[in-house]
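Tutorial, part two.
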Amino acid sequence: MNIRTLIVGSIAIGLLAALPLRAAEQMTRFDAKPGSGIKVRIEGTSTIHDWQVEGPLIGGFMEVGPKFPTEPGQAATPGKVEARVEAFIPVRSLKSIERDGSAYSDGMNDVMYDKMKQTTNPRIYYRLNELELKEPAKTKDAPYVFDAKGYLVVGGMTNTISMPVKITPLGDKKLKVTGETSVKMTDFKMEPPVKLGIFSTGDEVKLKFEWIVVQKAVPAAAATK
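Running the prediction step on this input gives:
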């Protein structure tokens, strides 16, 4: 092997090694911001009355590619978009509530934590697998409508779910992400609670969320390059 071949080979290896770094540099990261309008809600039914559970915490982050609409009214073309999402909800942050938002029952909370195997699986996880833009924003203040496919982990059991998601750039480097879908408890190996034959809950529940994420600040040294 001559010197020229060695040089060309070294350059090729260097370029290939740099590709992942360049791809990573093109991604813009948004982190969850606690106390900024974040809300997750679970709604279900029972033989006595409907019930609801809410929580104020969704942790994690969202990374998007250079063509992702991050500013209000930004032009965008329908189709698959480059994005990565990893989010989690602490199980014990979920609390049963009355319709008016007041606390409902510690007993129901304990049953919920038990069914979700909170002791061994203290968090609900979501990881995005695919995101497709279906409808660009119609006005500057309107959301972009997406179809999202990803993995939901509850009680240690993983299932693939699909749901429509709306993402609204709020300006000031913030995004508001909202969505909802329905799942069955039994799909996650959770038996719907039954109490002494008096009442039972329905298998299907509706999941809703509002998530505010804020663009991660660029280090001063990187910003000046």
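The radius of gyration is 22 Å. In part three we will examine how such features are distributed along the chain.
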